[in-house]
Amino acid sequence: MASFLRSGKKIVAIGRNYADHVKELNNKVPKEPFFFLKPTTSYLPSGGNVEIPRGILAHHEVELGVVIGKGGREISEQDAYSHIAGYALAVDMTARNLQDEVKKKGLPWSAVKGFDTFTPISSFIPKSQVSDPHNLSLWLKINGEFKQKGNTADMIFGISRLIEHVSSIMTLEEGDLILTGTPAGVGPLNAGDEVECGLADGATEKELLRLAFG
Amino acid sequence: MASFLRSGKKIVAIGRNYADHVKELNNKVPKEPFFFLKPTTSYLPSGGNVEIPRGILAHHEVELGVVIGKGGREISEQDAYSHIAGYALAVDMTARNLQDEVKKKGLPWSAVKGFDTFTPISSFIPKSQVSDPHNLSLWLKINGEFKQKGNTADMIFGISRLIEHVSSIMTLEEGDLILTGTPAGVGPLNAGDEVECGLADGATEKELLRLAFG
Ligand SMILES: [Mg+2]
Ligand SMILES: [Mg+2]
Ligand SMILES: [Mg+2]
Fold first, then answer.
1. B173 chain-A contacts, CB cut-off 8 A
2. Does A25 contact B at CB distance below 8 Å?
3. Count of alpha carbons within 13 Å of B22, Cβ hemisphere only?
4. Distance from CA of B205 to the nearest CA of A (A)
5. N or C: which end of chain A has fewer CB within 10 A?
6. For residues B89 and B132, what is the distance between their CA atoms, to the nearest angstrom?
């Protein structure tokens, strides 16, 4: 599954899954999970450069990614863990100015989330190396300064519930990625900024993954 | 490319591309194309059965599908035709009641368009067998009665323009499908309905593709 970048067909990205982030954008806490699709052509492997199109205000959203190992549909919360291959650290780049417009007009989010390079992504870590996916700290720095710092313990809907919800609508396939939402601290990325992100075990503080891009 | 159903990674679906359909849903004619993503897990090969989840009002939208042969990004209108492998006939099934809700709330369209079986799709026809993609008649019947009848001549944005627009945002890959929008006549599909769709040369009336599902 280390090859999910090439083999995966879809990225299912959950919105508003950390209360502090819901608040900072003046949104409402959702009663059930919701999601949008990002194309796999938006992947940017660590070390690359995000391309910000002219006129776009691009926001960073650091997120835990869940890589599907065994596909399925109507997966129950009880079975969900067995469908996970492992994890990755990702940034759900968002054209925030365009998103504000499409939200007002009731239009889809696919374009504002789907530009090439808008999903910077780390390497893969198998689930056996993660002792508790709901106690992971994740952070994002721009030019050495912390912008986002969160813990997956604060997700509104846990990973099993997300897998149950998504697979009740669309079949999940091997290599698909679920982005589990972002904690507070989202903000703009400017040309020339250096971004570093990390994922660590929340109990031991052992670093598990790192992601860097320009 | 006859295997795009299995090999393709994304379905890019254009909204509001026929003026008569824009009007019937009380929408505004867009100034530039817009689109949403459907997952390839929503494909339903001809002969299958659409599954309508409980509580869902499912509408049919018959559309010409353009199958990408040669991938690319920032494809110009001039080059667009050389990136096309061929065509298919598809139905962009839509959970209309949920779509009305998410439009009001400014939420993404991915779920309301992305249920398993929500993209019934015909076999593939190579572009060499289509003399003019902008003079194709397409129709949809339910239980033998015409519901939609249109001609691709009436698209607001032509195929080359759509390819240019989409590929200016996200790279297109071999096997990707672009759904080019639906003419007027969309409406509900009920359990047990038999649906038949056809695509024909607009000049000669020669039938090119047929699609049937229950
Ligand atoms: Mg996000
Ligand atoms: Mg969407
Ligand atoms: Mg449509």
1. 41
2. no
3. 16
4. 35
5. C
6. 15
Structure confidence at residue B2 as a pLDDT band (50, 70, 90): confident
pLDDT attached to residue B106:
94
- Our separate counts of H helices and E strands in chain B read 6, 15
Nearest to B117 by CA among B6, B42, B16: B42
Does pLDDT of A25 surpass 90? no
CA B143/CA B195 separation, integer angstroms: 6
> A34 to chain B: which residues are within 8 Å by CB?
107-108, 111
The interface pTM score, or ipTM, of the predicted complex is 0.96
For residue A17, the model assigns a pLDDT of: 97
Please say if the pLDDT value at position A161 is more than 80: yes
Cα B16 to ligand 3 centre (Å): 7
B37 and chain A in contact, CB less than 8 A = yes
Query: DSSP label at B72?
Result: B
**A-B interface: how many C-beta pairs under 8 angstroms?**
102
Q: Residue B201, Cβ neighbours under 10 Å: how many?
A: 16
B10 to A103: CB separation less than 8 angstroms, yes or no: no
Average pLDDT of the residues in B184-208: 96
Phi-psi label, residue A116: left if phi above 0, alpha if psi -120 to 50, beta otherwise: beta
Q: Test B37 with A39 for CB contact under 8 angstroms.
A: yes
Among the partner-chain residues A10, A106, A116, the one whose CB lies closest to the CB of B73 is A116
For residues B110, B115, B117 and B120, what is the CA-based torsion angle, rounded to 10 degrees? -30
Whole-number mean pLDDT of chain A? 96
- What is the predicted pLDDT for the residue at A168? 98
Domain B4-47+56-132+151-188: CATH superfamily is Fumarylacetoacetase-like, C-terminal domain (3.90.850.10)
Distance B108 CA to ligand 2 centre (A): 4
Domain parsing of chain B, residue ranges:
4-47+56-132+151-188
Mutation target vs B (from A25, A40, A107, A168; most B CBs, 10 A cutoff):
A107
Give the per-residue pLDDT at A116: 98
| Cα angle for residues A8, A98, B165 (degrees, 5° grid) | 65
Please tell me the distance between residue A21's alpha carbon and the centre of ligand 1 in angstroms. Answer: 10
Asked if residues A163 and A172 have their Cβ atoms less than 8 Å apart, the reply is yes
